[in-house]
Amino acid sequence: MSLQKVHEETIGLKPPLVKVCGRSIEEFLDAIEKFHGWKAPGLVIGGFMVDWAQELIGPGIEADAIVETCHCLPDAIQLFTPCTCGNGWMKILDWDKFALSLYDKKRLEGFRIWLDLRKTALFPNIYNWFMRLVPKKSLPLQIVLEDIIAAGRSILSSAPVQITKLHGKKNRGITGICSGCGEAYPLEQGEQCLSCQGMRYFDLVRRQ
Amino acid sequence: MSLQKVHEETIGLKPPLVKVCGRSIEEFLDAIEKFHGWKAPGLVIGGFMVDWAQELIGPGIEADAIVETCHCLPDAIQLFTPCTCGNGWMKILDWDKFALSLYDKKRLEGFRIWLDLRKTALFPNIYNWFMRLVPKKSLPLQIVLEDIIAAGRSILSSAPVQITKLHGKKNRGITGICSGCGEAYPLEQGEQCLSCQGMRYFDLVRRQ
Ligand SMILES: [Zn+2]
Ligand SMILES: [Zn+2]
User: Which of B101, B130, B194 sits opposite A202 (nearest CB)?
Assistant: First the structure.
Protein backbone atom coordinates (compact mmCIF):
# COMPACT_ATOMS: atom_id res chain seq x y z
CA MET A 1 0.00 0.00 0.00
CA SER A 2 1.38 3.41 -0.91
CA LEU A 3 2.18 5.92 1.80
CA GLN A 4 -0.38 8.30 0.37
CA LYS A 5 -2.96 5.52 0.56
CA VAL A 6 -2.08 4.70 4.16
CA HIS A 7 -2.39 8.31 5.11
CA GLU A 8 -5.75 8.74 3.44
CA GLU A 9 -7.22 5.67 5.07
CA THR A 10 -5.84 6.38 8.52
CA ILE A 11 -6.45 10.06 8.76
CA GLY A 12 -9.30 10.26 6.32
CA LEU A 13 -7.84 13.21 4.46
CA LYS A 14 -8.30 13.69 0.75
CA PRO A 15 -5.06 13.91 -1.25
CA PRO A 16 -5.07 17.68 -1.84
CA LEU A 17 -5.00 18.23 1.92
CA VAL A 18 -2.02 15.99 2.54
CA LYS A 19 0.77 18.49 2.16
CA VAL A 20 3.87 18.72 4.30
CA CYS A 21 5.93 21.88 4.05
CA GLY A 22 4.00 22.77 0.93
CA ARG A 23 4.74 19.49 -0.83
CA SER A 24 2.89 16.27 -1.55
CA ILE A 25 4.02 13.33 0.57
CA GLU A 26 5.97 11.95 -2.40
CA GLU A 27 7.77 15.24 -3.09
CA PHE A 28 8.42 15.62 0.63
CA LEU A 29 10.02 12.16 0.90
CA ASP A 30 12.00 12.68 -2.32
CA ALA A 31 13.44 15.95 -1.04
CA ILE A 32 14.49 14.19 2.17
CA GLU A 33 16.18 11.32 0.35
CA LYS A 34 17.96 13.65 -2.06
CA PHE A 35 19.46 15.86 0.65
CA HIS A 36 19.95 13.41 3.49
CA GLY A 37 20.82 10.27 1.52
CA TRP A 38 17.88 8.17 2.74
CA LYS A 39 14.40 8.55 4.16
CA ALA A 40 15.44 8.72 7.80
CA PRO A 41 12.38 8.39 10.08
CA GLY A 42 13.67 11.18 12.33
CA LEU A 43 13.84 13.53 9.40
CA VAL A 44 10.33 12.66 8.25
CA ILE A 45 9.01 13.44 11.74
CA GLY A 46 11.17 16.57 11.62
CA GLY A 47 9.39 17.66 8.45
CA PHE A 48 6.03 17.45 10.22
CA MET A 49 7.51 19.45 13.10
CA VAL A 50 8.74 22.23 10.80
CA ASP A 51 5.42 22.22 8.94
CA TRP A 52 3.52 22.77 12.18
CA ALA A 53 5.93 25.39 13.52
CA GLN A 54 5.66 27.36 10.28
CA GLU A 55 1.87 27.23 10.38
CA LEU A 56 1.84 28.46 14.00
CA ILE A 57 4.24 31.31 13.27
CA GLY A 58 2.32 32.34 10.21
CA PRO A 59 3.47 33.76 6.89
CA GLY A 60 5.75 36.75 6.45
CA ILE A 61 7.82 36.29 9.61
CA GLU A 62 11.60 35.98 9.33
CA ALA A 63 12.21 33.01 11.58
CA ASP A 64 15.42 31.64 13.05
CA ALA A 65 15.66 28.06 14.27
CA ILE A 66 17.06 26.13 17.21
CA VAL A 67 17.31 22.34 17.12
CA GLU A 68 18.04 20.37 20.29
CA THR A 69 19.85 17.45 18.67
CA CYS A 70 22.40 17.10 15.89
CA HIS A 71 20.62 14.02 14.54
CA CYS A 72 18.19 14.47 11.64
CA LEU A 73 16.41 17.62 12.83
CA PRO A 74 19.05 20.03 11.47
CA ASP A 75 18.33 18.65 8.01
CA ALA A 76 14.58 19.16 8.42
CA ILE A 77 15.25 22.83 9.16
CA GLN A 78 17.70 23.18 6.30
CA LEU A 79 15.41 21.50 3.78
CA PHE A 80 12.19 23.29 4.62
CA THR A 81 13.23 26.73 5.89
CA PRO A 82 15.84 29.28 4.73
CA CYS A 83 17.92 28.55 7.87
CA THR A 84 21.17 26.60 7.44
CA CYS A 85 24.01 25.87 9.82
CA GLY A 86 26.40 27.86 7.63
CA ASN A 87 24.29 31.02 7.39
CA GLY A 88 23.86 31.36 11.12
CA TRP A 89 20.06 31.27 11.22
CA MET A 90 19.98 27.79 12.79
CA LYS A 91 21.62 26.92 16.09
CA ILE A 92 22.29 23.28 16.90
CA LEU A 93 22.31 22.21 20.56
CA ASP A 94 23.95 18.79 20.93
CA TRP A 95 21.51 17.68 23.64
CA ASP A 96 19.94 14.67 21.94
CA LYS A 97 16.44 15.98 22.57
CA PHE A 98 13.99 15.55 19.75
CA ALA A 99 12.69 19.10 19.66
CA LEU A 100 13.01 22.26 17.63
CA SER A 101 11.93 25.89 17.86
CA LEU A 102 11.20 28.40 15.15
CA TYR A 103 10.99 32.00 16.30
CA ASP A 104 10.62 35.52 15.01
CA LYS A 105 14.23 36.70 14.92
CA LYS A 106 13.30 40.26 15.90
CA ARG A 107 10.81 39.60 18.71
CA LEU A 108 12.37 36.28 19.85
CA GLU A 109 8.89 34.80 20.07
CA GLY A 110 7.96 31.54 18.48
CA PHE A 111 6.97 27.94 18.93
CA ARG A 112 8.71 24.86 20.22
CA ILE A 113 7.61 21.52 18.82
CA TRP A 114 8.64 18.17 20.27
CA LEU A 115 7.96 14.48 19.85
CA ASP A 116 5.54 13.76 22.70
CA LEU A 117 6.16 10.18 23.77
CA ARG A 118 2.81 9.90 25.56
CA LYS A 119 1.10 10.52 22.25
CA THR A 120 2.88 7.64 20.56
CA ALA A 121 0.75 5.09 22.44
CA LEU A 122 -1.31 4.55 19.29
CA PHE A 123 1.86 3.96 17.29
CA PRO A 124 3.99 1.35 19.10
CA ASN A 125 6.32 1.05 16.07
CA ILE A 126 7.22 4.71 16.37
CA TYR A 127 7.76 4.39 20.12
CA ASN A 128 9.92 1.29 19.65
CA TRP A 129 11.90 2.87 16.84
CA PHE A 130 12.49 6.08 18.79
CA MET A 131 13.46 4.37 22.04
CA ARG A 132 15.53 1.84 20.08
CA LEU A 133 13.72 -1.02 21.81
CA VAL A 134 13.54 -3.30 18.78
CA PRO A 135 16.43 -4.40 16.55
CA LYS A 136 16.40 -2.70 13.16
CA LYS A 137 15.85 -6.01 11.39
CA SER A 138 12.48 -6.60 13.05
CA LEU A 139 11.29 -3.06 12.31
CA PRO A 140 11.64 -2.37 8.58
CA LEU A 141 12.01 1.24 7.51
CA GLN A 142 8.88 1.12 5.38
CA ILE A 143 6.71 0.11 8.36
CA VAL A 144 8.05 2.92 10.53
CA LEU A 145 7.62 5.44 7.73
CA GLU A 146 4.03 4.42 7.09
CA ASP A 147 3.21 4.87 10.75
CA ILE A 148 4.99 8.21 10.93
CA ILE A 149 3.05 9.51 7.96
CA ALA A 150 -0.20 8.13 9.32
CA ALA A 151 0.54 9.78 12.66
CA GLY A 152 1.49 13.18 11.22
CA ARG A 153 1.24 15.84 13.91
CA SER A 154 -0.70 13.59 16.29
CA ILE A 155 2.53 12.44 18.02
CA LEU A 156 3.82 15.99 18.46
CA SER A 157 3.17 18.73 20.98
CA SER A 158 3.74 22.47 20.61
CA ALA A 159 4.14 25.39 22.96
CA PRO A 160 4.52 29.13 22.40
CA VAL A 161 7.92 30.25 23.68
CA GLN A 162 9.93 33.36 24.33
CA ILE A 163 13.61 32.80 23.54
CA THR A 164 15.70 33.86 26.53
CA LYS A 165 19.19 32.53 25.74
CA LEU A 166 20.95 32.28 22.44
CA HIS A 167 23.49 29.57 23.22
CA GLY A 168 26.72 29.89 21.31
CA LYS A 169 25.85 33.30 19.90
CA LYS A 170 29.01 35.33 20.07
CA ASN A 171 30.71 38.12 18.26
CA ARG A 172 33.82 37.12 16.45
CA GLY A 173 36.86 38.64 18.10
CA ILE A 174 40.13 39.67 16.56
CA THR A 175 41.70 37.34 14.04
CA GLY A 176 45.42 36.62 14.31
CA ILE A 177 47.97 34.33 12.70
CA CYS A 178 48.82 31.17 14.63
CA SER A 179 52.55 30.83 15.30
CA GLY A 180 52.20 27.05 15.10
CA CYS A 181 50.52 26.49 11.76
CA GLY A 182 50.57 29.95 10.21
CA GLU A 183 46.80 29.91 9.72
CA ALA A 184 44.27 32.50 10.79
CA TYR A 185 42.48 31.87 14.11
CA PRO A 186 40.55 33.88 16.76
CA LEU A 187 43.15 35.37 19.12
CA GLU A 188 40.87 34.79 22.12
CA GLN A 189 41.65 31.05 21.82
CA GLY A 190 45.12 31.69 23.21
CA GLU A 191 48.68 31.90 21.95
CA GLN A 192 48.06 29.32 19.27
CA CYS A 193 45.00 27.93 17.54
CA LEU A 194 43.00 25.08 19.13
CA SER A 195 44.45 22.64 16.61
CA CYS A 196 48.03 23.51 17.60
CA GLN A 197 46.99 23.39 21.29
CA GLY A 198 46.42 19.65 20.90
CA MET A 199 42.95 19.31 19.40
CA ARG A 200 44.31 18.50 15.93
CA TYR A 201 42.31 15.69 14.37
CA PHE A 202 44.81 14.62 11.72
CA ASP A 203 48.39 13.65 11.00
CA LEU A 204 50.05 14.97 7.89
CA VAL A 205 50.87 12.19 5.45
CA ARG A 206 54.29 12.22 3.84
CA ARG A 207 54.30 11.43 0.21
CA GLN A 208 56.90 8.98 -1.12
CA MET B 1 32.32 42.69 -16.51
CA SER B 2 30.76 39.29 -15.87
CA LEU B 3 32.33 36.94 -13.37
CA GLN B 4 32.92 34.42 -16.15
CA LYS B 5 34.73 37.10 -18.13
CA VAL B 6 36.88 38.12 -15.16
CA HIS B 7 37.85 34.52 -14.63
CA GLU B 8 38.77 33.94 -18.27
CA GLU B 9 40.90 37.05 -18.48
CA THR B 10 42.66 36.51 -15.18
CA ILE B 11 43.29 32.81 -15.30
CA GLY B 12 43.24 32.37 -19.05
CA LEU B 13 40.86 29.42 -18.96
CA LYS B 14 38.34 28.83 -21.69
CA PRO B 15 34.70 28.70 -20.51
CA PRO B 16 34.27 24.89 -20.72
CA LEU B 17 37.13 24.48 -18.25
CA VAL B 18 35.65 26.84 -15.68
CA LYS B 19 33.61 24.39 -13.64
CA VAL B 20 33.30 24.32 -9.90
CA CYS B 21 31.87 21.19 -8.30
CA GLY B 22 30.69 20.13 -11.75
CA ARG B 23 28.79 23.35 -12.42
CA SER B 24 29.33 26.50 -14.44
CA ILE B 25 30.19 29.55 -12.36
CA GLU B 26 26.65 30.85 -12.79
CA GLU B 27 25.04 27.57 -11.68
CA PHE B 28 27.52 27.37 -8.82
CA LEU B 29 26.64 30.86 -7.56
CA ASP B 30 22.92 30.24 -8.03
CA ALA B 31 23.08 27.07 -5.94
CA ILE B 32 24.85 28.99 -3.19
CA GLU B 33 22.32 31.81 -3.15
CA LYS B 34 19.38 29.41 -3.17
CA PHE B 35 20.59 27.35 -0.21
CA HIS B 36 22.43 29.95 1.85
CA GLY B 37 20.28 32.99 1.15
CA TRP B 38 23.03 35.08 -0.46
CA LYS B 39 26.34 34.70 -2.26
CA ALA B 40 28.52 34.70 0.84
CA PRO B 41 32.19 35.09 -0.11
CA GLY B 42 33.21 32.43 2.42
CA LEU B 43 30.86 29.94 0.83
CA VAL B 44 32.17 30.70 -2.66
CA ILE B 45 35.73 30.05 -1.46
CA GLY B 46 34.35 26.95 0.29
CA GLY B 47 33.04 25.69 -3.04
CA PHE B 48 36.51 25.90 -4.55
CA MET B 49 37.84 24.06 -1.48
CA VAL B 50 35.34 21.22 -1.85
CA ASP B 51 36.00 21.08 -5.61
CA TRP B 52 39.72 20.65 -5.03
CA ALA B 53 39.31 18.12 -2.19
CA GLN B 54 36.99 16.00 -4.34
CA GLU B 55 39.45 16.05 -7.22
CA LEU B 56 42.32 14.98 -4.93
CA ILE B 57 40.29 12.16 -3.37
CA GLY B 58 39.16 10.93 -6.76
CA PRO B 59 35.88 9.42 -7.87
CA GLY B 60 34.16 6.45 -6.29
CA ILE B 61 35.30 7.08 -2.72
CA GLU B 62 32.70 7.48 0.05
CA ALA B 63 34.00 10.56 1.79
CA ASP B 64 33.10 12.06 5.15
CA ALA B 65 33.81 15.69 5.96
CA ILE B 66 35.17 17.78 8.81
CA VAL B 67 34.86 21.56 8.78
CA GLU B 68 36.80 23.70 11.25
CA THR B 69 34.34 26.57 11.50
CA CYS B 70 30.58 26.85 11.71
CA HIS B 71 30.59 29.83 9.33
CA CYS B 72 29.88 29.21 5.65
CA LEU B 73 31.99 26.07 5.16
CA PRO B 74 29.31 23.66 6.47
CA ASP B 75 27.06 24.87 3.67
CA ALA B 76 29.76 24.29 1.03
CA ILE B 77 29.99 20.67 2.18
CA GLN B 78 26.22 20.26 2.31
CA LEU B 79 25.69 21.78 -1.12
CA PHE B 80 28.40 19.96 -3.03
CA THR B 81 28.80 16.60 -1.24
CA PRO B 82 26.31 14.05 0.15
CA CYS B 83 27.41 14.97 3.71
CA THR B 84 24.99 16.98 5.87
CA CYS B 85 25.03 17.88 9.53
CA GLY B 86 21.89 15.83 10.11
CA ASN B 87 23.09 12.61 8.46
CA GLY B 88 26.27 12.42 10.49
CA TRP B 89 28.74 12.45 7.61
CA MET B 90 29.92 15.98 8.37
CA LYS B 91 31.45 17.03 11.67
CA ILE B 92 31.56 20.72 12.55
CA LEU B 93 34.36 21.96 14.81
CA ASP B 94 33.54 25.43 16.16
CA TRP B 95 37.17 26.60 15.92
CA ASP B 96 36.76 29.51 13.51
CA LYS B 97 39.50 28.14 11.25
CA PHE B 98 38.83 28.41 7.55
CA ALA B 99 39.68 24.82 6.64
CA LEU B 100 37.96 21.58 5.76
CA SER B 101 38.91 17.95 5.23
CA LEU B 102 37.31 15.29 3.06
CA TYR B 103 38.41 11.74 3.79
CA ASP B 104 37.71 8.15 2.84
CA LYS B 105 35.39 7.04 5.64
CA LYS B 106 36.82 3.52 5.68
CA ARG B 107 40.56 4.24 5.49
CA LEU B 108 40.37 7.64 7.28
CA GLU B 109 42.71 9.07 4.64
CA GLY B 110 42.00 12.24 2.77
CA PHE B 111 42.90 15.84 2.14
CA ARG B 112 42.73 19.00 4.17
CA ILE B 113 42.27 22.27 2.29
CA TRP B 114 42.67 25.69 3.83
CA LEU B 115 42.71 29.33 2.89
CA ASP B 116 46.42 30.13 2.76
CA LEU B 117 46.79 33.75 3.78
CA ARG B 118 50.28 34.05 2.28
CA LYS B 119 48.81 33.24 -1.10
CA THR B 120 46.30 36.08 -0.91
CA ALA B 121 49.06 38.65 -1.50
CA LEU B 122 47.89 39.03 -5.10
CA PHE B 123 44.34 39.60 -3.92
CA PRO B 124 44.34 42.32 -1.25
CA ASN B 125 40.53 42.55 -1.37
CA ILE B 126 40.25 38.93 -0.32
CA TYR B 127 42.81 39.42 2.44
CA ASN B 128 41.04 42.55 3.69
CA TRP B 129 37.64 40.88 3.54
CA PHE B 130 38.83 37.77 5.36
CA MET B 131 40.73 39.64 8.09
CA ARG B 132 37.83 42.11 8.34
CA LEU B 133 40.25 45.03 7.90
CA VAL B 134 37.96 47.17 5.75
CA PRO B 135 34.40 48.22 6.55
CA LYS B 136 31.82 46.36 4.47
CA LYS B 137 30.71 49.58 2.80
CA SER B 138 34.12 50.18 1.19
CA LEU B 139 34.36 46.60 -0.06
CA PRO B 140 31.26 45.75 -2.10
CA LEU B 141 30.28 42.10 -2.32
CA GLN B 142 30.60 42.07 -6.10
CA ILE B 143 34.26 43.16 -5.96
CA VAL B 144 35.16 40.49 -3.43
CA LEU B 145 33.31 37.81 -5.40
CA GLU B 146 35.05 38.75 -8.64
CA ASP B 147 38.43 38.43 -6.96
CA ILE B 148 37.51 35.14 -5.30
CA ILE B 149 36.46 33.67 -8.63
CA ALA B 150 39.53 35.05 -10.35
CA ALA B 151 41.69 33.56 -7.61
CA GLY B 152 40.06 30.11 -7.63
CA ARG B 153 42.37 27.57 -6.00
CA SER B 154 45.37 29.88 -6.11
CA ILE B 155 44.66 31.19 -2.58
CA LEU B 156 44.26 27.68 -1.12
CA SER B 157 46.69 25.04 0.07
CA SER B 158 46.11 21.31 0.45
CA ALA B 159 47.75 18.49 2.36
CA PRO B 160 47.14 14.74 2.48
CA VAL B 161 46.02 13.76 5.97
CA GLN B 162 45.32 10.72 8.07
CA ILE B 163 42.39 11.32 10.41
CA THR B 164 43.40 10.45 13.96
CA LYS B 165 40.57 11.82 16.11
CA LEU B 166 36.89 11.96 15.41
CA HIS B 167 35.84 14.75 17.75
CA GLY B 168 32.36 14.41 19.07
CA LYS B 169 31.87 10.91 17.65
CA LYS B 170 30.02 8.98 20.30
CA ASN B 171 27.61 6.14 20.61
CA ARG B 172 24.23 7.14 21.85
CA GLY B 173 23.63 5.75 25.31
CA ILE B 174 20.39 4.70 26.92
CA THR B 175 17.39 6.94 26.46
CA GLY B 176 15.24 7.78 29.47
CA ILE B 177 12.35 10.03 30.35
CA CYS B 178 13.22 13.31 32.08
CA SER B 179 11.38 13.74 35.37
CA GLY B 180 11.38 17.51 34.81
CA CYS B 181 9.82 17.88 31.37
CA GLY B 182 8.67 14.36 30.58
CA GLU B 183 10.65 14.29 27.35
CA ALA B 184 13.16 11.69 26.18
CA TYR B 185 16.85 12.44 26.86
CA PRO B 186 20.15 10.50 27.14
CA LEU B 187 20.38 9.17 30.71
CA GLU B 188 24.14 9.85 30.77
CA GLN B 189 23.33 13.60 31.02
CA GLY B 190 22.24 13.09 34.63
CA GLU B 191 19.03 12.91 36.61
CA GLN B 192 17.29 15.34 34.33
CA CYS B 193 17.83 16.58 30.79
CA LEU B 194 20.26 19.46 30.13
CA SER B 195 17.34 21.79 29.54
CA CYS B 196 15.87 21.06 32.99
CA GLN B 197 19.37 21.33 34.50
CA GLY B 198 19.35 25.04 33.64
CA MET B 199 20.40 25.23 30.00
CA ARG B 200 16.84 25.91 28.84
CA TYR B 201 16.81 28.62 26.18
CA PHE B 202 13.14 29.61 26.40
CA ASP B 203 10.31 30.63 28.69
CA LEU B 204 6.88 29.22 28.09
CA VAL B 205 4.42 31.88 27.06
CA ARG B 206 1.03 31.86 28.71
CA ARG B 207 -1.81 32.49 26.39
CA GLN B 208 -4.53 34.91 27.47
ZN1 LIG C 1 47.74 26.65 14.66
ZN1 LIG D 1 13.83 17.78 31.06
Answer: B101
